[in-house]
Amino acid sequence: MDCRLAVSLMHEYLDDDLSKDQAIVLKGHLEQCPNCSKLFHELEQTDMMLYAAQHHSFAAPDELTNRILNSLPKPKKQQVWLTWIKQHPAVTAAAVFMLIMVFSSISIWNSDNQLVVKGASLDQVVIEGDTVIVPEGKTVAGDLTVENGKTKVYGEVQGNVTVIDGSLYQASTAHISGQVKSINQAMDWLWYKLTNMFTEVAYY
What we know:
It comes from Paenibacillus sediminis. By secondary structure, the chain is of the alpha/beta class.
């Protein structure tokens, strides 16, 4: 048998694809040819090693495993506040909304200088420029609110008097049955607005 043919038959033999007659012929050649016999033995060893590798799991040494893990890039640490935001989206949205509302309200408070008068029985008051007057002998039945102006009370107010970003003068003849509030700070004004807004929503 030719050595080239023997090498070809060796692979088929190791793969169990060789017929019985061809296997007998190959074995006879291997007994007579030391080179082919040596090659067959090496191929057989290699085949056994591949079989063992496929059917058995080999654990990597701890040192190698640790070295590989340490060489991997470290994950970036998220900032604490970013993690908190991700865990509390509803609270974050509410806080952002409140901030926007506060800044926009303060901006409006600073830019709005128009006189505003609110209340019942406004026909009982006199407005002169930026001054709102409750004349002596007149009665305002209910609350009176004045924004961005001066308030002078000589008569009676049967309710609260609230002055926002302005001044209040009470004569000795004045009678106010409710509370008197003077609001000159942006945060106080904002709180007043928020309270009013929620009161109106609850009322309607």
